[in-house]
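User: I've been trying to design a sequence by hand for this structure and keep getting stuck. Would you show me what you'd pick, starting by listing the structure so we're on the same page?

Assistant: Good idea, let's start from the same input. This is the structure you sent:
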């Protein structure tokens, strides 16, 4: 049995270096304070295995928390991978580093200016609370499933609950990010950009502010997909970047919120000579299309 001094030295080996140099894992995402890999315990397409550079420990989000190999230090990791017990794991690590001086980890604080939401898993919408939330907004759940996913997310830089998982609806955008919603969350993952839903007619566009407005429009018109290409803005701030393309279209059918920002953006389209039709008359007296649809 190794003495306590040896065990202490082994636990000081930099776990990121061990995973890359000894296990051959490839870094998928490095936030500075935390590094993400595909799990060494299984094949996967979403990196669920992370190492904290602050504590030099790992967490495998794909394992049940009752599994002792779901988190721990370098020795716990080797025990989980080799399945030969604590003593054999210590011996295995010591043999790996018998000749070379092990790299000692240096604690690094996690930065708060890095992406605030991490998507841990993506699946078809099935959660009962989510389906109830969708129905409360008067959207058909199967229609929502055609355009949205169920996400399991967490906020790794939260000071109170960095490991807490939240189940949300995720509406994907053109760059791989998501608009994230549930009954109490309204967030976006990075990168944030518009969502383009191609139609058979691209000479005319439909410009819709949010994805629940888009789903409400589908419900209102009784279709699963529009013939015209639809641009879901996800925020009106992106209108400026697509105005040159809007100007080239035969017509733009515009479904913006009825607030001051929406009115202002319609005024800019007039000034820039962009062909458009204001369709907010459909939900006149309401904030937006979904507000009208869920209350009609």
């Amino acid at each position: 049995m190794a003495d306590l001094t040896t065990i202490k030295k082994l636990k000081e080996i930099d776990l990121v270096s061990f995973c890359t140099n000894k296990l051959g894992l490839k870094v998928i995402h490095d936030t500075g304070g935390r590094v993400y890999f595909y799990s060494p315990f299984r094949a996967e397409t979403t990196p669920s295995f992370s190492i904290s550079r602050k504590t030099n420990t790992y967490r495998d989000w794909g394992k049940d928390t009752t599994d002792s190999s779901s988190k721990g230090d370098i020795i716990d990791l080797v025990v989980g991978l080799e399945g030969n017990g604590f003593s054999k794991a210590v011996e295995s690590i010591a043999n790996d580093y018998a000749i070379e001086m092990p790299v000692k980890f240096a604690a690094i604080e996690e930065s708060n200016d890095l992406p605030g939401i991490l998507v841990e898993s993506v699946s078809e919408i099935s959660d009962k609370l989510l389906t109830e939330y969708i129905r409360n907004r008067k959207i058909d759940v199967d229609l929502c499933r055609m355009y949205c996913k169920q996400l399991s997310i967490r906020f790794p830089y939260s000071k109170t609950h960095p490991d807490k998982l939240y189940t949300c609806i995720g509406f994907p955008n053109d760059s791989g990010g998501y608009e994230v919603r549930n009954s109490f969350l309204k967030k976006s993952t990075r990168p944030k950009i518009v969502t383009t839903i191609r139609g058979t007619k691209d000479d005319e566009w439909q410009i819709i502010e949010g994805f629940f407005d888009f789903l409400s429009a589908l419900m209102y018109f009784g279709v699963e997909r529009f013939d015209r290409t639809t641009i879901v803005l996800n925020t009106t701030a992106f209108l400026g970047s697509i105005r040159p393309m809007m100007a080239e279209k035969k017509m733009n059918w515009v479904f913006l919120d009825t607030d001051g920002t929406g009115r202002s953006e319609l005024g800019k389209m007039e000034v820039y000579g962009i062909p458009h039709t204001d369709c907010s008359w459909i939900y006149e007296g309401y904030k937006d299309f979904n507000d009208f649809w869920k209350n009609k």
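That's my pick for every position. To get oriented when you compare it with your attempt: Residues 259 and 287 are 7 Å apart (CA to CA). The radius of gyration is 25 Å.
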